[in-house]
Amino acid sequence: MKKALPSHKEVFMFEKEDIPRVWDFFAEEIIEFANKEEVNEPPAAKYIRPKLREWMSRYLKEGITDDFLNDLNTAIHKIRYSKYIFPLDLLPSETGFPKNGYIAQYDEIPKPEEYAADDFSKLLTSGELKRLKRCQLKGCENFFLGPPQARWCSKACGSKFRVREKRKRDLS
Ligand SMILES: [Zn+2]
User: Fold this and answer.
1) How far is the CA of 138 from the centre of ligand 1 (A)?
2) How far is the CA of 141 from the centre of ligand 1 (A)?
3) Pairwise CA distance, residues 100 & 139, whole Å
4) How far is the CA of 37 from the centre of ligand 1 (A)?
5) In angstroms, what is the span from residue 161 Cα to ligand 1's centroid?
6) Which residue of 18, 68, 128, 136 could cross-link 27, Cys pair, CB 3.0 to 4.6 Å?
7) Which residues are within 8 A (CB) of 96 and not within 5 positions of it... i.e. 6 or more apart?
8) What does the domain layout of the chain look like in residue ranges?
9) CA 126 – CA 26 distance, rounded (Å)
10) pLDDT single digits (tens) 32-91
11) Cα 76 to ligand 1 centre (Å)
12) Rounded to the nearest 5°, which phi and psi values hold at 14?
């Protein structure tokens, strides 16, 4: 079992065949997954990805409204968690006593829409979504995490955008 990083605000765990496992959480990874297909990805990925993208674009459009949270809560409702007390070597605590937590029951794999909503809810509660952006280059529209003024997911997209803008100006 891998050690949970103490810097994690929240530790995500899931259990399969009675073995608890730490779910390493990196916002960047989820966003990268949402953007593009990976080689040898599990077949469910192609059903999860569009749902995850839907949540992300909806968040960018609507923000966190009551409707948004109601829909998200409905989508994750079926995911079952059990109470779990973290061993200290897994999650050190400042008091020296083990901490309370919850562990997702994955013996039955969640449906793609539930899985996507669960992934998105991790992004949401991590606070990382405040940096969520969408590339403004037509045809790219990748999601990325960036500062408030960022408009493109990469330097390459930024320069493509400027070339297109220049061409538009030159032709008008
Ligand atoms: Zn881009």
Assistant:
1) 8
2) 6
3) 45
4) 16
5) 9
6) 128
7) 88
8) 12-134, 135-172
9) 10
10) 999 998 888 888 899 999 999 999 999 999 999 999 999 999 999 988 888 989 888 888
11) 30
12) -135, 160
